[in-house]
What does this fold into?
Amino acid sequence: MAAKVERLKVNFKTLEEFKKFKEYGIQELSMFEDLEANMVDNDSESPFYGIYYGDKLVARMSLYQIDAKFDRYFYPPQNYLELWKLEVLPDYQSKGYGKLLVEFAKSFGLPIKTNPRVKSSGFWEKMNFKNVEYDMERDRGENPLVWYPEGVEAQH
Ligand code: COA
It folds into this structure.
């Protein structure tokens, strides 16, 4: 079966699938509350993208576009994508799903910033992500990694 990345809808079924992921937290809970309170429409677009195996969600990530005026990572400042919550369910790891999601994020042609989970550094190296080389104070305990499309320079 050919795997494909799709934008996930905000609905109770998606939120049920999210419970299988380790990084289930405040963001998912607030989506749930917003749905229950009818603050968002059922099936509205979410910042999440994922891969289904049959009807089971087996990998996902969240992607947010950050406006250049808030950029602290790239020079010259520009719009970039913040990638987080990349996670592949244990039984489905090492099958190329993580890579497929990262390649999908790269296809927007914008720089990408992520805060890797512990022990995933080998994966991010393979995906050509690099440590941020800025002199500003480190993010609170974070160790951000970035990827630059061609023609975009790292900030020195
Ligand atoms: N260290 C080094 N290389 C890794 C790696 C790791 N931890 N995980 C994957 N890779 C490599 C693969 O060998 C593959 O290389 P190839 O293209 O030469 O074949 C490439 O990265 C793509 O791997 P892929 O199959 O897409 O990885 P994945 O679907 O399992 O996704 C994670 C990677 C890290 C997102 C996923 O495994 C995950 O969510 N893990 C959760 C826990 C975690 O962070 N584990 C880290 C290892 S303990």
Summary: The chain has a mean pLDDT of 89.
